[in-house]
TrEMBL record:
InterPro entries: His_Pase_superF_clade-1 (IPR013078), His_PPase_superfam (IPR029033)
Organism superkingdom: Bacteria
Species per Swiss-Prot/TrEMBL record: Pseudobutyrivibrio xylanivorans
Protein name: Probable phosphoglycerate mutase
Amino acid sequence: MQLIFIRHGDPDYVNDTLTEKGRREAQLLANIIDKYGIDEIYQSPLGRAKDTAAYCVEKLGLPVTTLDWLQEFPGQVNANVSEDVRKAFATELEINPETGEYKNRIMWDMLPSYYGSHPELFDVNEWKKSPLFDGGNALEVYEHVIECFDKFLADNGYVRDGLTYKVENGNDKTIAFFCHYGITSVLLSRLWNVSPFVPLQVTALAPTSVTVVASEERQKGIGIFRTLRAGDISHLIIGDEEPSFSARFCEKYENEDERH
């Protein structure tokens, strides 16, 4: 079985849709989507993911199912609980003018000075004990998402068993998920058996990029998942479309026109 994670096109976050660039990216993806041999399509309930999927759905003529847990990972960090948490996101904290408190925010894109001094964040077990999660709901949301993902895989024949999977119905289906960078990183971390901060902090999957993961059953009844490609943007290269900078930060500090 193959799982294909496709990030939405260049986003208009304010209106939860695609920019004109994002629509060009989605069309370029649709131009080659039939090469992947997709059997089933699932999408996030958010507009930017659904708008991206629509181009490929029209090309393939397949039905599409919306899964609520494929929305961008909604777990929140509460920066009001401690100075330690505020240090993690010091350059991007926002104040709620009505309450005077810091707004909750996503748990990734922390400053390198913070995770450089908190190695537990990259430990497969210890990351859950981080003070980042005090007062927020990120851990609760994480557990819910993983429960949903495990059930989805079990329903398709792969039952979680420690660090591997019991293969109860091995198959050659190809399943596409049209979703988001954050949720893709969380789901990949489950398949890779690593902390979610590994993909969240050391990858940047560009808009409309394609990540392919395939099952392996080298021993009867015991499965794992291996990543065949991550963040593939060959469709953009073929179409002479510059990849979006979304999810990235400045290559060097002096680059004032790039996100810091």
